[in-house]
Amino acid sequence: MADAGMGVGGHKTRRRSGRQKRKTDEPEKRVRGSGVERLRQAADRKLARNSEKLADVLLENALKGELGDTKVLVHLAEDKAPPKPRERKPSGPTIMDLAKKWAAEPEWVEPEVGDVWTGDGWKRVSTGQLVNRWGEVENGGQ
To answer: Number of C-alpha atoms within 13 angstroms, CB side, residue 45?
Structure first.
């Protein structure tokens, strides 16, 4: 007869209990964000949940004559105006600004047939005058 702990081929088998091996050196889970900011938010949530109890404790201590708690209670109870929201300035010209600027410019005048571009404007072949893009004579008719 085969022994109770023997497997196929005469090798001993291991019996595993239902428990798994515990990892003692698990890596820490990485969290995002600033630790200080996370702490501030957690403290804010705790204060919100327990604000009534904290106010009662401050009041009891103030009635007992604790000057520090009295100052804190009075400071918290003062009516302070909420901060005004900052107005955001546009980062660049708006479409309306550009539209107004373009509307204020003089209208483009097409050069006449035969005019030559000189780099500074159009030179009219018929008169020899230098004309800018708005049809204005620039150098008095050379």
So the answer is: 5
